[in-house]
Structures are given as structure tokens and as C-alpha cells.
Amino acid sequence: MTIERNSKVSKPKEALSCCGILQAFSMDLPLAANLFLLLSAPFVGSFLDLLCERWPRAEPFLLGRSRCDHCGHDLKWRDLIPVASWIIAGGRCRYCGARVPGRHPIVEISALAIAIWSQAALPIQIAWIGMIFGWVLLALALIDLRSLWLPNALTLPLGLAGLLVAWVIAPERELDHVIGAILGYAMLVAIAFFYRRYRGREGLGEGDPRLFGALGAWVGWQGLGTVLLYAGIAGLLSLLIQARMGRTVELTTRLSFGPYLCLGGWLTWLYGPLYLE
Ligand SMILES: [Zn+2]
């Protein structure tokens, strides 16, 4: 049995060549937008890290990190350069010596990696869309990982943006994406319902169906199976790694499924759905 990509379904790269709307843009505008987003990627990562830490606790995050979380000392611009400040200070606060968690630079590097990945995988006209899509997925994954929460304020606009992007890239396939959004949401609501009914407890988070619906808006109904497949494989791999590292994972352990859905949605949007022949 071989697995191959179906060329007839929505893939941004191929859809673009058959649609003239974006070609009408001057090349300079996308180039400038891409360069700007690429250079700001580590700063976006820094902001996302703060957002994902403070939003679930209902703390202000819009003005950025201005004080050390430990000693409250005002941070200067040279304490706030993504990755570099953390490395130069040896992973500690320069004023009180408290350890600054390594997840800060990891999120900054992840945001940069998403930007570079988008540039490498997508045509220049839509690479900037890929970057923003990837960053929103990164934020959702981090919030779910840290707080087991998928905010509607992110999943709902993400779904609307998916429909809009699909309409701009390939308007003739818009219906596939509308069906993808509805079907994605309905599938996970149904799975959660039957799980609750037969196992007597919650199997999925409340936000998972909305996230899957939003991803359906991006990848179309043809991509839903692939998103679930990637998410399932990534989730299982992560469980195996955690079990090997000595963490007890039981059937009743609450796990976030959002990060794996985000990864599945990202890969499927970039490379198209897989089909079994
Ligand atoms: Zn400090």
C-alpha cells in the first residue's frame, strides 16, 4: 500500500498557479512583508511566550515584558533581545540571578523556525500568510500545553481567516473549506459525545472541536483525515517519549490534544492531504 499526495485537492502552492488574483499583486509588496515578518519573528516569539503565560491568568500582556518576574527590577532593552539576552546572561536575571526558564528562547526560536519554514515551503505571495497562520497555531499549542485551554478568541478568528484565505487563493474551492469547517467541528463533537457516553468521562477538551473546525476551514474537508492522522501519530510518539522519560501516563491522565492538532493542521496546509491508494 503506498501513500501519495492527491494533486486534485487544496494545496496553496498549486492552487496559486491556477488563480490570477494574487499574481496581480506587485512582487515588491509580498517581498517587503515577508522580510519584515522574518526579521520580526524572534520578537513575535517573545510576545507569544508572554501572551501564553499571562493570558490564561488574565494578566496584562499587551505592553510586553517590562519587569523581572522574580525581583521586579525594570528590564532594559538589552535584557529583551530575543535569545541573545538569555544566552549572554547565562539563562539568569542580570539583577537578582534568578533562573530564566529555557522555554523563553525555545519559543522565540520556534517562531523564527516557522517563519523560515513558510518562506521555504510557500510561494512568496503567500509566505507571509503561512507565517501568521503558524504563529497563531504556535500560540494555541502553547496555551493548551500550559493551561489545557483553547481560547475561542483565537480559534474562531482562525477559522474565519481560513475561509478568507481559501477564497483569495482558490475561490472555486471555497465550498470545500466551508464544509471542512462544519465537518471538522461536528466530527470532534460526535467523538466527544460517544466517548462521554460510553466511558463516562470527558475524552476531549471543550476547545478541540472548535480548533479542528478552524483547521478544516484552512485545509478543506479533504484534509481533515490527514490532520487527525498526523495529530494521532504525533500524540502517540509524545506519549511514548514521556513514558520512556519516566512520566506516568494513565488512561485517565488529562492530556492536551490541541498542540498535535495544530501540528497536523500546519503540515496538511503546507503539503496537502495524504490519501491511501
Ligand atoms: Zn530578577
Task: List its salient traits.
two-stranded antiparallel sheet; binds zinc ion; globular; mainly alpha; disordered N terminus; 10 helices; 2 domains; 277 residues
**Binned strand content:** under 5%
Radius of gyration: 20 Å
Give the helix proportion (percent range). Answer: 55-70%
Taking the sheet with the most strands, its summary is: 2 strands, antiparallel
Number of helices: 10
Distance between the first and last residues' Cα: 7 Å
Q: Which blocks of ≥5 consecutive residues have pLDDT under 50?
A: 1-9
Strands, count: 2
Average predicted confidence as pLDDT: 88
Main-sheet strand order equals 1-2
Oligomer: single chain
Reading the helices and strands in chain order gives: EHHHHHHHHHHE
The count of domains is 2
Class computed from helices, strands and strand pairing: mainly alpha
Bound molecules: zinc ion
Inertia-based shape: globular
